[in-house]
Automatic annotation (TrEMBL), chains A, B, C, D, E, F:
Pfam families listed in its UniProt record: PfkB
Name of this protein: Sugar kinase
Domain Carbohydrate kinase PfkB as annotated: residue spans: 1-312
Region forming the signal peptide: none
Keywords linked to the UniProt accession: Kinase, Transferase
InterPro entries: Carb_kinase_PfkB-like, PfkB_dom, Ribokinase-like
CDD domains for this protein: KdgK (cd01166)
GO terms of molecular function: kinase activity
Family from the record: Belongs to the carbohydrate kinase PfkB family.
Gene3D superfamilies cross-referenced by the UniProt entry: 3.40.1190.20
Length: 334, 334, 334, 334, 334, 334
């Protein structure tokens, strides 16, 4: 059976219980996450076959991370082990007007040392038919950028579908390469663009606004600049406060513009990984449904993710489908 | 002092902390519950004298269940001990649009083996003046149905009040008896009906709608068919989502139709046992107040239950009264 | 560097986890609090230099309380140790229409034995430039009243600023002194009044209403009666239910009336210490900003406190400032 | 069925998890205990009928304490409610050479206010045939001493058995009565003495040593001085360290001296309440067995208690019997 | 790569934290176990390739159990899903002379319904070279016995190695078949016997004693009666108490008798699954070492298992080897 | 009052609860530690005045670390904040023959960037009279070595006492400097040597054995080579297994050889920081007692530390003294 390939850093997330600040706490919960592996694990939980490629520490923390991936029946055979430690991030969860805070300890992690020579892409992509990447990986180090580029080029040669989530985060990109240049190169290998006008403006150097008309214009311009891209999906989040959000999405696939309804999350359980749940829902959806149904599926999956603790979306296909059928009142399953 | 009698299975409930799914968890909380014992314990906590009759495993889990009932000063002297295990159910608590899920392990439990010969109803009802039953018990096994029937017949002979909550759950009723036939037999021993048009339609084979007019019509029809019944109480729940509900109630007592105001629960702590809290409030109320006041008391008790973890309503009479007095802003008690 | 002085009882707070009642629980969380020390610790966390004066038990519980104060770099050198135990209070946290409940065990605590001879006020106030007191302390015992009075008289002599939060709580004041008489005496040493028309009516024997006009009138009357007072700040809370509140504030400083916007807290984490967070924000603010900005700062600090567990406001100056800058959507800090 | 009566203070015990000190912790476990109620609850758990008499706070903490007693099916109908708080004690659990530490907050508790007029002893002892008291109660306050004395006098009149555990603790006895005088008066109402040469020396003013011969001499002397006493039981503890103890017992019943074997507890779980478990085992035993068998039963019960967390001995009769049958290797029960 | 096959019930284990009894607890930990799957998971953790065959409930509990097996990279592809619930067992952990207690709820579990027609043994054993079974499975139901028998017959035909751990537990074997008859039939398919004189006496109807000489005699007799068996391994446990054990082993392989040294476990963390860890160590060992080295490896693995919480032996090959190298002082690994 | 100065890295320690492996856990406890700060905090807890100098991350983790140090009333005014993350180490706690494991993530931490220019040693040592250093710091980076060297040279100039704990750990010392050379340079500034023949052999290139005679010889040789050193203290640990150790110490102060008795720790709670507790006890002791009493005090403090969770010795002077007085049976403090 053909596989979906994800590539990127796996981090350990550490948080106090509940809404405590570190300064109050003396116990922590841990999870494993990272934007690309979140996408992969969430697809695996929906029932897709996924292989994740990364570098992980060769110690008991690394063993634990791999056991976590195995738990979802993910293919972990291509993971490289390293004598550097696994990256860590600390999360303080906010509430209402108090934002959550994140502090990263990843700059010299196992993944930070990755080089193209460490991944045998021919073997890794052997059964693959879809490759998902995000803008976090090329932003980390030259080696991560180069390794991803090598993988994407081979994926393009093999005619694989490639989804790109070029999330731009200004705190990264510190090793000397310009975000715009790197993303341009990688987008020329991609077929599905997951992002909105901000991301398009960043790549094209334009300044489109947020209206639907401008979104369609921007998408057309993007497809002109990157002829391999044939679909653009944009997830839109409205934050009432840290505990109460709305989610919707829109798309342009070259011929059709569509929008979803609003999904309202009045009591957020966990905000981390919700964008990744959208991407995972979309990739899973595009294997089984048309573009609009896929976007609806992705939006409902993203909304549901806000109700699970941890980085992964524990929603199943049935659970997502029930939301799409209008069952948003959360009545009991017996 | 005269007692309220409840009869039905006691189950152990097991849930992960917070909103976790089992697949994420490795620790659980446990509670003891079951619709009839929830009613009994909630009445006991309000100050009523209650005896619960059931069959419970003869091991340390059963000892723990009985200790839990003793904690509320419930009369446990008529409980039968069995070498079958206590039934268990697993609960995953949902949030917002994610529903909660329940998985039962009760089909060969201690209670599933109950037979009329195992309960000495004469002795059990000696001090009783009220008997409460629900549609769950006759739906489980022939023995449970027969045992309940024997108890209700004696209660009727003794002129006891009998409240019926004929909750219909289609996943049960698998042992060969028709729900409608069994409930009909049991309702002929009952004096107070706790249920709405759905339950009436189920029993009478009618198809009344949800308006107040149709509710009154249905109630009249029910009283014609079951002349022992002289009061009908209907609790109505509106679910905005799994975390936010509204509760109200209406009644027909042969001469008068009344409705309560809406009780809004914006941040649900625990949804389990809230219907049982309504029944408990009603039974307790009818010992002390008129019909309308009893229904208001029951509705406020039901609303309050949503704020307690576990199956039991930990509200006291004073706490319920304060809600009825309009103190719904949750200001401190010092 | 000059210090802010707080004086009052430190209590140990004990609560079940989450929203449980004691009768369901068998584990507790503990915090240290008390209205004046909450103000002091919250100022310390904002960056102010604070010395707290109190009497604390000379056992391992007292050691733990002092370690908690040290954690915030508070000056604990003037604390008296006693062979009486530390006061304790038990808190059950409510939800929605269920109020929280508090039960105190403080009547013969270490602090209840305090006498003027036990505090060397000359030394204690040596570096002080501000003294904060509340109406709780004089309500406890004659000794607590006398000790506070001695401190305030010296503070007045030294020309210190003195903020008064004369919170009236009818369950206290049992030792024989009239609240009105005692507060009158103490207010004659004070310069900033933190309270509204209720507190003014209590002290003056008047019956002003809640409109802004009446608030201004009442404030003017208060300043006439207590010429040392030159500013009045009033925090107003609207409770939708126990989980959802609104906060705003208003002021009269002799020349100007101002009001803040509403701060809405849709999902309260912890209600305790929020009034103290207002006082702390105000005192901190008045060292750095004009009156109106100080009141805004205090209101935002108070709103933020609702999102932290425990008695202390863990908000930093930056976090408060971001709320004032309109960042109330709780987006991530990365 | 006839009852065993216990009388004494119920305290709330608060401890950090595991072996932590308070200064490291921020969560606690709570239990309810007190030497006499520990004896009562341990007898109730063995299957005896027990009524406990005490004064308990009239708040949610007191409700929780009573619910704890109800859980063991103890008769709580004679308990007095008071507007004073329940006494509290804090426990830090030691290990190896580090001793455990205790800090009490009981001096003005609900029980500290008890007076003879508050207990209707006629009614309380109506079904009683055995009364157990300890030296803690008369050491607390004049009122506690007087109330106990009134109860014991009536017990003597009614010909009840009375067991005395005159534990001498020098930190108590602060209200003006001499320990020796008070204990002498109370022992004149007693029939079974639970204590060793230290306690006998304290009461008689003698200085017997620890040999068996001197123990027998001392016991004879005691029975001369207190002719109602006809049995003396002495539990002997050898502490290797805080985690490793040995227990044995010896007796003189006027005609016979007997000793038990050593019971070795190599890994102590909880040290609190182990002496109370000995007394409970003895009282339970003397209803069913001869003196020597009762002492063996008590010693095994005491040893087992070291393996349970909390104040109460959760051992059942069967579990104690298995120890006496020589099953000390802790093999599985399946 | 060739696989080791295990077959048997997977149960959910539920225990209070620490040494608490259920009657004291309100939170639980859960694990998944069962003697055969414990063996399989422990081999998998040592690095072997293992396939487990069983029937598991088709609900979220079953999903969680399979996720647990996947975590160890076990082959779960042959697992049958059933609409019966997963079996559950409750464990109270003892200490010192207090034994642990177990209560099972497995008699109508998913696995209790297993029938030969439900397992495709040809496919299941396709890559297998070793099959491990225990006496628990044939003791449960006729279907479990028949299904195991079908598997073992095929294993024998295919010339696979078959290890038998015929643990005799008298509380089982209730469905009508004699233990001796069933075990005889199954042992005729087996090549390695894991058991001592008790098990041999049970099967042969003999009464050998515990000396090494009698062990050798008994083993010879067993090999005469069951010519396929060519090795006997006997693990011997000496219990000082429930917290302190010693382990050693002895063997007879037709030509040679050998014994291991004693392994002393002074502070047991978890007793469950330690026999399974011996079997797992032995099976793993026999793939790589000679008979004596395998037995030593198994004994060290068994000893180490006492230091891990849960049913599985989390020891790695390296960790076991270090014990065999004499590193039993537990010095730090840095 | 004069201060004791400690200098070295502060790390965050993360461990699963109890004895779990990471692969089993999903919650962690955290502590702050590091050999030098452990010494400092343990002295502070004994009552000494201590200033710790280090570099700590400028984020909420760093804030929490400093709050932890403040809790002990340690002087944190000389701590440097850095934009690198705080170092982390993961600890799996072993039991019996299973060793504990440690995995470090410190190589690019805040402290790893420290340079002499970042510490104003003149100001830092202003009130200091004692400086404690260990062999961990110079083993980390050139900058750490140079910074320490600068501090020690100034300490020597100022005539301060300097205690050296040259713990040799071969996994460190990777940046190019030879351990022997670096330690030699630093020991020339030191007055008290805490170490045994292993450490002396490492520094001098000798090969003394473990007898008392050879220890004395080695100590004399050391004092010849380093004339500033006038005392040698050697702590000797005997490990029965990971849960059971013995501790004793010996000394040579130029004129006198002395040994302590054995301190046996039969049930270890936490092994981390016990060597640091010895150093802390010694340094504290040498301010108040003669050499032999100081060594006894240090040994008892070290033994006690094994009974506290975390890196710090929570023992007080009184608690240590009681051990020295022979109270090792762990009887209650009331």
């Amino acid at each position: 059976m053909s596989q979906i390939i994800t590539f990127g850093e796996v981090l350990m997330r550490l948080s106090p219980f509940g809404n405590k600040k570190f300064i109050q706490a003396n116990t922590l919960e841990f999870y494993f996450g990272g934007t690309e592996v979140n996408v992969g694990l969430s697809i695996a939980h929906l029932g897709g076959k996924v292989k994740h490629i990364t570098a992980i520490s060769d110690d008991f923390i690394g063993d634990t991370a791999i056991a976590h991936l195995n738990k979802f029946d993910m293919d972990t055979s291509a993971i490289v082990r390293s004598n550097r430690p696994l990256g860590v991030y600390f999360l303080e969860v906010g509430a209402v007007m108090r934002p959550s805070s994140i502090s990263y300890n990843r700059s010299h992690s196992a993944f930070s040392q990755i080089e193209p020579s460490m991944v045998d892409w021919e073997k890794a992509l052997h059964k693959g038919h879809w490759f998902h990447w995000t803008g976090i990986t090329p932003a980390l180090t030259q080696g991560a950028f180069d390794t991803l580029k090598a993988g994407l080029k081979l994926a393009k040669e093999k005619g694989m579908q490639v989804s790109a989530d070029p999330t731009y985060r200004s705190g990264l990109w510190k090793y000397g390469v310009e975000a715009k240049d790197a993303l341009t190169e990688l987008l020329h290998c991609s077929t599905v663009f997951i992002g909105g006008v901000n991301e398009i403006n960043e790549v094209l150097g334009t300044d489109y606004g947020y209206t639907n008309e401008e979104f369609i214009e921007a998408s057309k311009k993007l497809m002109e600049a990157f002829p391999t891209i044939n679909k653009v999906f944009d997830k839109i989040r409205t934050s009432i406060n840290a505990s109460w959000h709305k989610i919707r999405a829109r798309m342009w696939n070259g011929t059709e513009f569509r929008e979803t309804q609003d999904f309202e999350i009045t009591h957020i359980v966990d905000r981390i990984g919700t964008g990744d749940a959208f991407a995972a829902g979309l990739i899973y959806g595009l294997q089984h449904y048309d573009d609009f149904k896929s976007m609806q599926f992705a939006s409902a999956a993203c909304a549901l993710k806000h109700t699970y603790a941890g980085d992964v979306n524990y929603a199943t296909t049935d659970e997502v489908q029930r939301i799409l059928d209008g069952n948003v009142t959360g009545r009991f399953n017996r």
